[in-house]
């Protein structure tokens, strides 16, 4: 997807003319608060056109009876009207040549099918006219860096702290909570809350922020994705620009999914798929609002860079030990301080202080004014240390205040990133000092270590390439297992030797040619779950066992209304190996997605599966393999050779290429035997696209 596929939002976010439909003087009304936010609480020197057919003036400004009465087109029209008047107003705005319409009104897609039909009508107005629609069910937007509020929020006037964080939400309440982190010195430069997204979506706003030089990090609070592939395209643009995206996805549980649908009518999507695709695209996923705020603020200050060694530095031994323990539990690494660093600390600190990592200066810092700054300066310049974690367990008045002053003085020139943690519930002067200097301290060690882990992960992440494979076309018609495996063989994948037969006699001949033991599988149109239907027999050691299996299979299928007219006889695969699964399906939000995990019954018992959006390359396929919890089973274990991971990766890349090609609704390869000599597909279901039975392979 290229830039021209995303709209230019500059007229929306920095307009020169704004019409307010439903402008009012009624106190605490949407029409009044919106006009006052723009006219009195914004630094807006453009033209404002109140539209109210019943008034000549609104808050001292000349009012107009309709959009058609304005002297010319406006950049933005803000719609503050009842739901039943919105569509007509949008048609009037489009006819007047309006660039963007912002719709605050709720009562549309979040209410059900009738409301969604009205939103579809809005989208059609946008498509036909070229006017873009923001909302409905939106609290508007705040361009705080330019001191502009197109919002009805009664507290917009308090949004005075600008910054490098771009915030994208669909609802207003959680976004407002993020904005109010300004009390901690965390400034949001641009906040867009897109509501139900009848036309413009989060993806459009994210893409704009990628190109906004004032925005350093994008914080995303998503209830769902209206257009998953488009959102991923915006995420790829952010990755190319080196701009971090930190995201919180609401709607992971059944309760959350139901709530988001009633709120913004967004598709919540599969939580597991969403999380995996976030990782694939370098999006840092967080779990709650505090973590979103902390992590976004950390990225704004630190940017994206590889980081490794962490030094824990404190004046409390117990606090230092706790911090070091939490760092280790998170899988992070304490730096080994250089000999020169340790020697310098020994020369400055008391003999009983700990000068290895973690560093504990003891309460001696209470009596020596320069001790803390001199020692912290040494640690911050240690060649093996990229981050200094600075937990402050309690407020000690002037001592803690001086410690905060030291951090503020050293931070601008410190080679290592300084991360203060204010653990006390007493927010004293030192806490305010750190906030004012842009060093917003974490409020617990857990939050600090979690955010630091996210920072280090993103610093190590890099986008992987995609593979473009020239794959043979599939034959026409539906594919039974025999046809599916023939196709897989044409794609270069390994399948067991097998033959299609139509009688017990032919089955015996085929088995003699293949060699016992064999597997017998019925080929019945529409029968996807063969094992449950008694249509699979394994480990058949001779012709007598094969004939008996044929008879039993005929009886079982007949009882279910099926006939055994064709079957597949295959070599029974032996040797070392682990059963895994690989699949391809069309996710309703993100499009073609490849899945990988432990196979056989384990995929249902453990749900040890990961996902990627198609297409992708070999590096991403190997990352998928490494990501499952059962990864150790694929390596050498107790004398058993490990699986051929390269063959598994090749299989996943082929599935990804098929997904991008678009002619497969679903492909379920389960199990696949992953052994030291390669990966053999033991069972395969392929459903063509489009097909009325899409989804059955995974039910």
Give a quick precis of the structure.
The protein is 35% helix and 20% strand.
Structural features, described:
- One of its GO terms (molecular function) is metal ion binding.
- This is ATP-grasp domain-containing protein.
- InterPro entries: ATP-grasp, ATP_grasp_subdomain_1, CoA-bd, NAD(P)-bd_dom_sf, Succ_CoA_lig_flav_dom, Succinyl-CoA_synth-like.
- It holds the Pfam family CoA_binding_2.
- Residues 485-522 form the ATP-grasp domain.
- With 699 residues, the chain is an alpha/beta fold.
- It has five domains: 1-137, NAD(P)-binding Rossmann-like Domain (Rossmann fold, 3-Layer(aba) Sandwich), CATH 3.40.50.720; 161-304, Succinyl-CoA synthetase domains (Rossmann fold, 3-Layer(aba) Sandwich), CATH 3.40.50; 309-460, Rossmann fold (3-Layer(aba) Sandwich), CATH 3.40.50.261; 497-571, ATP-grasp fold, A domain (Dna Ligase, domain 1, 2-Layer Sandwich); 578-688, ATP-grasp fold, B domain (D-amino Acid Aminotransferase, Chain A, domain 1).
- The chain is 35% helix and 20% strand.
- The strands form six sheets. A seven-stranded mixed sheet has the order 9-8-11-10-12-13-14, sandwiched between helices. Strands 24, 25, 26, 27, 28 and 29 form a six-stranded antiparallel sheet that branches. Strands 2-1-5-6-7 form a five-stranded parallel sheet, sandwiched between helices.
- Helix 12 (339-348) packs antiparallel against helix 13 and helix 14 packs parallel to helix 15.
- The longest helix is centred in the N-terminal third of the chain and has 17 residues, at 113-129.
- The two termini are 33 Å apart.
- Mean pLDDT is 92; it is low at 259-268 and 691-699.
């Amino acid at each position: 997807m290229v830039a021209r596929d995303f709209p230019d939002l500059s007229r929306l976010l920095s307009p020169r003319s704004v019409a307010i439909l439903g402008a009012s003087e009624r106190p605490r009304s949407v029409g009044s608060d919106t006009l006052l936010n723009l006219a009195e609480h914004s630094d807006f020197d453009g033209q404002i056109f109140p539209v109210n057919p019943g008034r000549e003036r609104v808050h001292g400004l000349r009012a107009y009876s309709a959009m058609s009465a304005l002297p010319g087109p406006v950049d933005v029209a803000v719609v503050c009207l009842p739901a039943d008047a919105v569509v007509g107003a949008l048609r009037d705005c489009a006819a007047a040549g309006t660039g963007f319409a912002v719709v605050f009104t709720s009562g549309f897609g979040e209410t059900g099918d009738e409301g969604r039909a009205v939103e579809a009508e809005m989208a059609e107005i946008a498509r036909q006219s070229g006017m873009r629609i923001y909302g409905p069910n939106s609290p508007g937007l705040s361009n705080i860096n330019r001191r502009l509020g197109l919002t009805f929020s009664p507290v917009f006037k308090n949004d005075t702290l600008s910054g490098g964080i771009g915030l994208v939400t669909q609802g207003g309440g959680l976004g407002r909570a993020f904005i109010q982190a300004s009390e901690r010195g965390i400034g949001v430069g641009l906040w867009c809350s897109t509501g139900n997204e009848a036309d413009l979506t989060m993806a459009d706003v994210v893409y704009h922020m990628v190109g906004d030089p004032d925005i350093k990090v994008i914080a995303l609070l998503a209830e769902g994705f209206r257009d998953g592939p488009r959102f991923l395209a915006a995420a790829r643009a952010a990755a190319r620009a080196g701009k971090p995206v930190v995201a919180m996805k609401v709607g992971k549980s059944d309760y959350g999914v139901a709530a988001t649908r009633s709120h913004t009518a967004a598709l919540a999507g599969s939580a597991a798929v969403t999380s995996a695709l976030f990782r694939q695209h370098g999006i840092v996923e967080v779990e709650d609002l505090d973590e979103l705020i902390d992590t976004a603020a950390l990225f704004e200050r630190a940017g994206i860079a590889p980081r490794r060694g962490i030094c824990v530095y404190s004046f409390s031994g117990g606090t230092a030990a706790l911090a070091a323990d939490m760092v280790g539990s998170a899988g992070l690494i304490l730096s080994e301080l250089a000999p020169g660093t340790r020697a310098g600390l020994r020369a400055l600190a008391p003999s009983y202080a700990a000068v290895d990592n973690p560093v504990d200066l003891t309460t001696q810092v209470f009596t020596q004014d320069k001790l803390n700054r001199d020692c912290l300066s040494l640690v911050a310049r240690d060649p093996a240390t990229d981050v200094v974690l600075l937990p402050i367990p309690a407020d000690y008045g002037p001592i803690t205040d001086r410690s905060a002053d030291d951090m503020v003085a050293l931070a601008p020139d410190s080679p290592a990133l300084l991360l203060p943690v204010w653990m006390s519930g007493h927010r004293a002067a030192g806490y305010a000092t750190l906030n004012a200097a842009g060093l917003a301290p974490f409020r617990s060690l857990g939050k600090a270590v979690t955010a630091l882990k996210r920072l280090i992960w993103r610093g190590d992440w890099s986008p992987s390439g995609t593979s473009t494979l020239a794959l043979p076309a599939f034959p026409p018609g539906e594919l039974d297992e025999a046809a599916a495996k023939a196709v897989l063989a044409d794609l270069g994948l390994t399948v067991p030797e097998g033959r299609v037969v139509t009688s017990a006699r032919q089955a015996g001949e085929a088995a003699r040619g293949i060699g016992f033991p064999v597997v017998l599988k019925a080929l019945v149109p529409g029968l996807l779950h063969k094992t449950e239907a008694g249509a699979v027999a394994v480990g058949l050691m001779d012709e007598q066992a094969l004939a008996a299996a044929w008879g039993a299979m005929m009886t079982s299928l007949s009882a279910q209304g099926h006939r055994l007219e064709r079957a597949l006889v295959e070599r029974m695969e032996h040797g070392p190996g682990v059963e895994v699964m690989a699949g391809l399906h069309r996710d309703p939000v993100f499009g073609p997605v490849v899945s990988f995990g432990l196979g056989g019954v384990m995929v249902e018992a453990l749900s040890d599966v990961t996902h990627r959006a198609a297409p992708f390359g070999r590096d991403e396929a190997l990352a998928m393999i490494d990501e499952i919890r059962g990864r150790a089973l694929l390596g050498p274990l107790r004398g058993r050779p490990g699986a051929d991971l390269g063959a598994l990766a090749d299989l996943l890349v082929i599935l990804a290429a098929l997904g991008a090609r678009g002619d497969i609704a679903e492909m379920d390869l389960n199990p696949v035997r992953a052994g030291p000599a390669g990966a053999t597909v033991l069972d395969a279901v392929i459903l063509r696209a489009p097909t009325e039975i899409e989804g059955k392979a995974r039910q």
